[in-house]
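Annotators were shown the component list below and the corresponding predicted structure, then asked to write short factual statements about the assembly.
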Amino acid sequence: MLELLHSLNQIAASLLTVGLILAASLGIGATLAAKLRLQTHGLVERLTWSITLGLVAAGTTLALVGLTGLLFRPVIALGTLIAAAWGILLVAQGWLTGPEESSRECEPHHEHRSAPAHPPQGLMAGLAGLVAVVGVCSLAAALAPPTAGDALCYHLELPKVFLAEHRLAYQPFHDNSTFPLLGEMWLLWGLALEGPVAAQLLAWCWGWLLAGATLILATPLVGRNWASVAGLATLLIPGINNHMAAPLVDVPTALLTTLALAAWLRATWNHEGGEWTIVTGILVGAACGTKYVALVWTAAWTTVVLYGAWRHREQRRELLRQWGAVLVIAASVGGLWYLRAAYHRGNPVYPFLSAWLPSAVPAPVTVDKTPLATHPLALLTAPWQVAIYPELVGGRGHRLGGALLMVLPTLFVARRLRGLAPLAALAALYAVGWYLLRQNVRFLYPIVPLLVLAAVWSLIELARWPTWPRRAAWGLLALVVAVDAIGPVRRAGNNVAVACGWQSRSDFLLQHEPTYRAACVANAILSDDARILTQDYRAFYFDAHMTRESIYRRATQYDRLLRPAALSTELRLRGFTHLLLVDKTGAPTAESTTLNELVRKAQATETAENRRLACLDDYHVVDSDGVERRYRLIELR
Amino acid sequence: MIAPMRPPSPETTERQQRLRRARHVVAQSLLPRPASPAGAPQVAKWKAVALLTWMAVAAGCYAARLLNLWD
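Structure shown to annotators:
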């Protein structure tokens, strides 16, 4: 009973923390929007703009505080409480109701409306029902402690280290430590106030914000009602709702690029002021400060703007001035991450371009991450491959689903929707960049709202189909979307006990996270100055300082310099106190076993009386990917 | 969003007026507009059936892959 109460207390604390963070973001963002005199209409729009701008401002502030070495929990908590109180005060004063809504804002910019103002009966109800199921199931999954690999490797691991050291500490043997880390600053916020579950719940909120951003982007093109369909449909993309239960930064990158695009369209269409140009710059900078893929997005956007300037000769100067202003503001907002990387690595985009910009720690060997071929037939069939074989390009968990593949070709018989062409061009250019550089399906998320918007226009145009093909098309679509919604339900099934408090978070992690048992042992018996040389990158649950063995080896070539018989002594001289070894059986790709071999040779030379490598824990785990892992925590004596 | 051009206020300078006109023209040329009014012609049946066939094949293959019925 006490354990249940403790679990419920933890859940309430996590939810309250996220509520405080959202209120604080709202307070900051609403003030920023008021200062910029942004005209926003409708509750969803106001919440999306304000919270996102607030998150950007707060994340950038946390980064600056981290650079000055003042990253203390009490400082963050005090700042959050003040901002949250301001946000709550704004809401109490009627901020949510806002100014009287202009009906014109909610209509598409059509002189003659080409689509019915209201989607077919049942569509909204069906979508809302599915989104409710997906939302609740994703929430249940998000309430479980994080187990996503990348999150434990760096999205949460780096903020944990920054908080422990009270600054944005540079870690030479951590390739990700000089990445753009604005998204990680938001996770750090959740970690500082409560813990990893609060940070993960922020990811759940990002999904809803992305839906709001899609609605904002789609409203001027297809009207509010169909834009709501686009917003809801975004949440039904399997990869998006999967990411709502994992603290990764792909969805916030998509959120920032989508809102940047919406702001740019307003800056272009609204001939009264430059406030939306400023917002575009802030959001482009924030996106580039969150993930490198936003640089590709910015290049695609730049191409679209320059093409527009070339086409519209008389307005060229105005468009170019707008574009220049956006880039300058973006560099001011997102540039600090690139300056930080340049300062530490001598390369602002480390580990990319390392052939031209070498750093003290050599970059990893370039691995080709473009599994799809580049001949014309492969290009033509790429959408099919990405949708049907997501395992080739990042995994099923990140997939885009089947509905987009089914619907988008129907654009061939759709009428032209003015305003869609530049967005489609941007999506196509980004997709080409994605295809040539990094074929991971989750890196396509920045264009998902654009694809969804195009798909919604296709759905509108279904009204022009003959009756029975139209009904059959709707039926097929409903079937595929419903099948895709089973994923979140299944995921929630594994997590419902811990989400409701029936299972403790520790028990859940012992069942689901392979490194957790070793972390528990290490945290219980190791001192604060312990340093572990680890083969597993998932270091989040360890309190000790963790050094990635493969990167340490790449930088120092220690394996060639030391004698196996004196392994323990020589590693201790290098500052390490323990080793975390992982032997994998059945892994799809071969991984280095250098340290395992060194340990094996060293142990072969040891006698029982003179043991220098003492095994503190030794266990086997079969992970969800079917790979058997043997973990050994070894003390160097 | 797009609003009709308002008459300039007395204090608006010539340069500001030019700027506003330029922005308005850009806005007019970029704003969304349908290709044809409501009541547009129906899509030809053969085109609709062809696209429906595509949708059925895509849905079938996707579901089969998702349910591990086909590798």
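Statements collected:
1. The CA atoms of residues 404 and 600 of chain A lie 52 Å apart.
2. The domain at 514-636 of chain A is CATH 3.40.190 (D-Maltodextrin-Binding Protein; domain 2).
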